[in-house]
Structure formats: C-alpha cells, structure tokens
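Translate structure to sequence.
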C-alpha cells in the first residue's frame, strides 16, 4: 500500500509515540522517586494507553489482523480507575482491599458487551467497521458500551475533583516544596488524562450524530495521545536525571533569608501563647498568610520561624492544637452525643477524612479507639 506523505508522517508520529510509551513505562517503573504501589498503578495506566495507541496505529498502517480489532478497547475502562487510585495513593496512600475489585466492574462489563464483536469472523469484522466508519451504524452492544464508558468517566471525574479539592485545602496550609512539586505534577497529569478521555468520547459520540467526523476526531485523539506520552516522558527524563545536580554543593533552604541564624525561641513562645489564648487553631480556614498578618510578620519569615524554631511544618504545628482540642471534646460529657464529624468541625478541621488521618498520625490510634481506651481506663 503506497502512502501519501501526510499518511507517512502520521504513522511515523504514532509509531514513535508507541516507542516513547515503552521508554516511559521503563522509566516510571524503575524510578526511585515513586513507591512500589505507585509504580504498579502508573505503569499499568501507561500500558493501557500504549496498547490503545498501538492498536490504532496498526489499524491505520494495515498491519493489524481483523481478529485482533478492538482487543485493547476494554482497557479504556481501566484508565479512570487507575488514575484515581494513583492520585489517592500519591496523596494519602491506600490499602488494597477486596472492595477495590469493584473498580474492575466496568472493565469486565465492557468485555461482555464486546464479546459478540470478538466472535465475528474476519470478513464480518471488516464489514462492520466499514459500516461504522461510513454511516455510523452501531450495534446495541456498542451503544451500551459507550453509555457505560460515559457514565464511568463522569463518576470518576466527580470523585477525582473532590479528592483534589480535599487535598488542596490541606496542601495550602503546609506549602512544602516537595508537595508543591507533587501537586503541580498531579494537577497537570489530571489535565492531560481528562483531555485525552474527553477527546476519546467526543470521537465515539460523533458516531451518533456526524459519522463522517469520526475518522478525523479519532485521528486527532490518538495523535494527541502520542503527544501526551511525549510530555510525560519528558517529565520523567527531567526528574530522573535532575539528580545529577545534587552532586553540587546544595544551599540551605533559607539561604537567602535576612533572618538566617536568628534565635527563634522567643517568637515560638509568643506564637504558642497567641494560639492558645485566642484559639486561632479553631479557624478551619487558617492559613500561614493569615497567621502572619495577625502577628504582623512576613509570611516567608513565619514559615522559616516555624520550620527552624518549632522543628515542624505550619500544617503540623496547627494540627497539634486541633488534636489536643479534639481529645478534650471526645471525652467531654457535653459532647458525648456529637458525631466524629461534629467533633472534627468543632476542633478546627473541615472534613472527617483529614481529621481521622491526622488524629491517627499524632496519637497512633483512631478517634474511636482513643475514646474506647479512655472508657476502659475509667472502668479500671
């Protein structure tokens, strides 16, 4: 088959995208910066994207046997769950439980919907795809698959947005350099994945309205996917080899600060006094900038003073007081009938999830276990 220059260029970009995907998979799964669980999740996500790109590329080049058409389509249903679990693990970590298998339900269901297509002989497969591309003739199962995919994407999009908002509320309090980079990466990665999935659905749903647009939108989608993989690869290359710069003599975090070397003990003592007397920690919207303005201190200086004077972060510094307040409320007769969420809100937290996690980190037990232990101690 003789190719036009534009077709040759398109296939070159697509094949190069598959190759870059392989390199990205290798770098992401051998990266020392990620946990083993994150390597598995991110690596699996990349594999799903690579196989989708590979199938499309082989189709466009005429190298894919008809019996293998749509072999990677169900993998699209794993993209959103893997992405969600990757974000969840990056921010909070998660334990793999039996209930986690529920994430596989859309994937398994999509395979069931596509079984009739997989059972077609080669000639019938080609005829079906021709009718699909030319007039948008869809089977009932194809329509059901599209509805399932759209529903899944919508649900996960809502969950992921809530997760990002929840973490962002906590992150804006701490503002550590390490987390700034992590948040930037996850947010940019979110944009990339959402853009890819949106284009994917736009292409598929064009079959219901303007079938002639399908081939063009599909091509744009997979060229975009190749571009996405390239962006992710460049990020990992930058991350992987940026460690070479560490061979140089590193400067202290607050090297250029004009209060470097000062004794921060008097400030920390004053800060603790203000926190207790005015109970500033009960303000769930308390930020380092707000606290700095109350004490009439520049926010960067406030951050440095807490970091070097109290040997902790602003986030943990404030939460120490919130946890102590929560411990008092949990064992108080006045708050005996309050729910954990109410206790959390009264202590300065803005959601139950953050409260539970922070409480356990500071006390080595959950709020419920803490209350049980207190009651047992009273009985003894």
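Result:
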């Amino acid at each position: 088959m003789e190719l036009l220059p534009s077709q040759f260029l398109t296939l070159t970009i697509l094949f190069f995208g598959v190759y870059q995907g392989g390199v990205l998979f290798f770098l992401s799964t051998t990266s020392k910066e990620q946990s083993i669980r994150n390597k598995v999740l991110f690596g699996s996500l990349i594999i799903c994207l690579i196989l989708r790109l590979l199938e499309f590329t082989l189709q466009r080049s005429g190298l894919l046997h008809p019996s293998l058409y749509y072999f990677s389509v169900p993998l699209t249903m794993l993209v959103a769950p893997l992405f969600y679990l990757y974000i969840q693990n990056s921010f909070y970590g998660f334990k793999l439980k039996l209930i986690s298998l529920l994430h596989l339900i859309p994937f398994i269901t999509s395979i069931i919907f596509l079984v009739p297509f997989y059972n077609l002989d080669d000639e019938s497969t080609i005829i079906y795809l021709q009718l699909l591309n030319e007039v948008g003739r869809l089977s009932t199962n194809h329509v059901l698959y599209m509805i399932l995919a759209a529903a899944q994407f919508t649900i996960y999009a809502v969950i992921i947005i809530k997760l990002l908002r929840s973490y962002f509320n906590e992150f804006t309090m701490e503002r550590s350099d390490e987390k700034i980079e992590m948040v930037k990466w996850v947010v940019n990665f979110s944009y990339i994945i959402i853009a890819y999935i949106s284009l994917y659905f736009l292409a598929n749903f064009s079959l219901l309205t303007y079938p002639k647009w399908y081939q063009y939108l599909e091509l744009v989608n997979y060229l975009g996917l190749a571009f996405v993989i390239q962006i992710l690869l460049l990020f990992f290359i930058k991350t992987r080899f940026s460690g070479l710069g560490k061979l140089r003599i590193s400067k202290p975090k607050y090297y250029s600060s004009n209060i470097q070397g000062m004794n921060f003990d008097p400030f920390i003592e004053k800060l603790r006094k203000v926190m207790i007397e005015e109970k500033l920690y009960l303000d769930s919207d308390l930020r380092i900038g707000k606290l700095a303005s109350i004490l009439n201190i520049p926010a960067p200086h406030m951050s440095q003073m807490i970091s070097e004077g109290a040997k902790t972060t602003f986030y943990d510094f404030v939460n120490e007081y919130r946890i102590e307040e929560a411990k008092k409320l949990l064992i108080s007769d006045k708050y005996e009938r309050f729910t954990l969420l109410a206790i959390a809100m009264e202590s300065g937290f803005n959601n139950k999830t953050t409260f539970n996690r922070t409480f356990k980190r500071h006390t080595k037990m959950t709020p419920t276990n803490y209350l049980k232990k207190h009651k047992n101690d009273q009985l003894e």
